[in-house]
Structures are given as C-alpha cells and as structure tokens.
Amino acid sequence: MTSFPLRPQRLGVNIDHVATVRNARGGSDPDPVRAALLAQAAGADGITAHLREDRRHIRDRDLSRLRAELSIPLNMEMAATEEMVAIATSLRPHACCLVPERREEVTTEGGLDVAAQETVLSSRVARLRDAGIRVSLFIDPDAEQIAAATRIGAAVVELHTGAYAEAGDEEGQFRELARLARGATLAASMGLEVHAGHGLTYDNVTPVAARPEIVELNIGHFLIGQAIFDGLPAVIRHMKGLMAHARVRPQENADPQSDDDGE
Ligand SMILES: CC(=O)[C@@H](O)[C@H](O)COP(=O)(O)O
Ligand SMILES: NCC(=O)COP(=O)(O)O
C-alpha cells in the first residue's frame, strides 16, 4: 500500500516530575521552569504541567512562572473543580486538559467520565472557553465519552494511553491499540482535535505516533526519568525523532506486530 508522510505531530513535554524531585527535599532544585525552558530550546512543541489538588508536584507559582516565561503553548492539566477553574481563568494558559483526580492515586488511573457529569462539566468548559482557553478532555478511547465530549463543547480530546502502555502482553497491547485507533478515528470524524498520552516511552510510542488523527502526544514521566541518563535535550530530540519516523510509513508503523520498532 502506498504511504504518504503525515503532518508532523507535536510533542508536549510534561515537566511534573521535575517538581516531584524538587519537592522531595522541599527546596527549589531542580527547577521545573528551567526544565521547561530547556525542553523548549530542544524542540518541545508545548509544555504540560498538572496542578494537582494536593500540589504533590507542580505548584501555583510554577504555573505563573511557566505562563510568563515560555514562548511555546502551556497546557495546564487539572481536575474540573471550582478551585482549578478559577486558577485557570486567571492564569489563562493556552490550553487546559481536564483530568479525573483521586487524592490517593499514584497517577491518573483512567479517563474522565464525561458522560456521567455532562451538566457540571459543560458549564466549566464554557467558562474556560470564554476565558480564551482551548479545552481538552482526558478520556478513555470510548465512543460514549467521545460523543459526550462533543456535546459539552470541548475542542480537543486527549486519549488515555495508559491501558495500552501497561498491557502486559502483545495481545493486550494489540487490543488496546485497536481501541485507541477506533477512538481516534471517531473523535476526528466528530470534529475533535485528537491528542494522546500517558505512559508513553521510546519502546511503545511508534504505533501511537503513527496514527494520522493524533496530532499531539503528551509525555512526561519517561522523558524526565530518561533525562537522568542522557540529558533532557537529547531525550526530547530522540523522542521527536521516533515520532517523525513513525509518520513516514504510518500504515506499517501503526501495526504493533510489525518488525519495524521505529529505532
Ligand atoms: C493526566 C496524566 O496523564 C498525567 O500526565 C499526569 O498529569 C502526570 O502526573 P501524575 O504522575 O501526578 O499523574
Ligand atoms: N497527559 C499525559 C501526560 O501529560 C504525560 O503522562 P506521563 O508520560 O507522565 O505518563
């Protein structure tokens, strides 16, 4: 089958876990804003930072500094609470991604249940939109959630890739990838911009990066961890290289059973 190079896909670098390391000692190093500026210089297309309700990593002051110092888009991840909507509408980042949050979780465990909370979410989405913020919803790649995201006026959905990333075997990975592909196709056909993220690494990024409808990946934990060994600029350049390579022959690379691992 003939294949055509796709449009480049954006890489949003999530710098939360620089703040996790900083907070471990309670001081000011390492500075997540410095990491964001380094990521920007290395070719990141955006910076993602999640202001959790418990402030376990990113803090309010980090966000205001990011907003002031970055020249690439800032994507603020947040729970859909009154407190967070008030912070976001005052900060006015380029985008807000609404995510589900449970205080006791180690990381975001599933997608936002948009279908179950349409009324409250639609008024919060409207307030963010009225403040000029592009609103994204972090959801599982399910038809019910995608339809609900459209109904409440989100511009973007970020498909949760955690189940794909954590699938223990090839069969599970194949099943989750097929689910992501169906979700991406459906969301794009409904006029939503499609992003994806969570748990992506050098080893599993290629089939996701090859999906033509997915125009942005948000990646954090792996990049920050790998930067300990290789340095943040080299890690960002390598990840962007894998993403670009995946889109040269998207049909082949979208198949997780392909021999080509994207290296
Ligand atoms: C929403 C999401 O998928 C994660 O990127 C999260 O923002 C990373 O931070 P945690 O590790 O605190 O979940
Ligand atoms: N929204 C996903 C994200 O920002 C990064 O997730 P992870 O790579 O830290 O798992």
Automatic annotation (TrEMBL):
<comment type="similarity">
    <text>Belongs to the PNP synthase family.</text>
</comment>
<feature type="active site" description="Proton donor">
    <location>
        <position position="198"/>
    </location>
</feature>
<comment type="function">
    <text>Catalyzes the complicated ring closure reaction between the two acyclic compounds 1-deoxy-D-xylulose-5-phosphate (DXP) and 3-amino-2-oxopropyl phosphate (1-amino-acetone-3-phosphate or AAP) to form pyridoxine 5'-phosphate (PNP) and inorganic phosphate.</text>
</comment>
<feature type="active site" description="Proton acceptor">
    <location>
        <position position="77"/>
    </location>
</feature>
<comment type="subunit">
    <text>Homooctamer; tetramer of dimers.</text>
</comment>
<dbReference type="GO" id="GO:0008615">
    <property type="term" value="P:pyridoxine biosynthetic process"/>
</dbReference>
<feature type="binding site">
    <location>
        <begin position="220"/>
        <end position="221"/>
    </location>
    <ligand>
        <name>3-amino-2-oxopropyl phosphate</name>
    </ligand>
</feature>
<feature type="binding site">
    <location>
        <position position="57"/>
    </location>
    <ligand>
        <name>1-deoxy-D-xylulose 5-phosphate</name>
    </ligand>
</feature>
<feature type="binding site">
    <location>
        <position position="14"/>
    </location>
    <ligand>
        <name>3-amino-2-oxopropyl phosphate</name>
    </ligand>
</feature>
<dbReference type="InterPro" id="IPR004569">
    <property type="entry name" value="PyrdxlP_synth_PdxJ"/>
</dbReference>
<protein>
    <recommendedName>
        <fullName>Pyridoxine 5'-phosphate synthase</fullName>
        <ecNumber>2.6.99.2</ecNumber>
    </recommendedName>
</protein>
<feature type="binding site">
    <location>
        <position position="25"/>
    </location>
    <ligand>
        <name>3-amino-2-oxopropyl phosphate</name>
    </ligand>
</feature>
<dbReference type="InterPro" id="IPR013785">
    <property type="entry name" value="Aldolase_TIM"/>
</dbReference>
<keyword id="KW-0808">Transferase</keyword>
<dbReference type="GO" id="GO:0005829">
    <property type="term" value="C:cytosol"/>
</dbReference>
<dbReference type="InterPro" id="IPR036130">
    <property type="entry name" value="Pyridoxine-5'_phos_synth"/>
</dbReference>
<feature type="binding site">
    <location>
        <position position="107"/>
    </location>
    <ligand>
        <name>1-deoxy-D-xylulose 5-phosphate</name>
    </ligand>
</feature>
<feature type="active site" description="Proton acceptor">
    <location>
        <position position="50"/>
    </location>
</feature>
<keyword id="KW-0664">Pyridoxine biosynthesis</keyword>
<dbReference type="GO" id="GO:0033856">
    <property type="term" value="F:pyridoxine 5'-phosphate synthase activity"/>
</dbReference>
<feature type="binding site">
    <location>
        <position position="199"/>
    </location>
    <ligand>
        <name>3-amino-2-oxopropyl phosphate</name>
    </ligand>
</feature>
<feature type="site" description="Transition state stabilizer">
    <location>
        <position position="158"/>
    </location>
</feature>
<comment type="pathway">
    <text>Cofactor biosynthesis; pyridoxine 5'-phosphate biosynthesis; pyridoxine 5'-phosphate from D-erythrose 4-phosphate: step 5/5.</text>
</comment>
<feature type="binding site">
    <location>
        <position position="52"/>
    </location>
    <ligand>
        <name>1-deoxy-D-xylulose 5-phosphate</name>
    </ligand>
</feature>
<keyword id="KW-0963">Cytoplasm</keyword>
<feature type="binding site">
    <location>
        <begin position="16"/>
        <end position="17"/>
    </location>
    <ligand>
        <name>1-deoxy-D-xylulose 5-phosphate</name>
    </ligand>
</feature>
<dbReference type="Pfam" id="PF03740">
    <property type="entry name" value="PdxJ"/>
</dbReference>
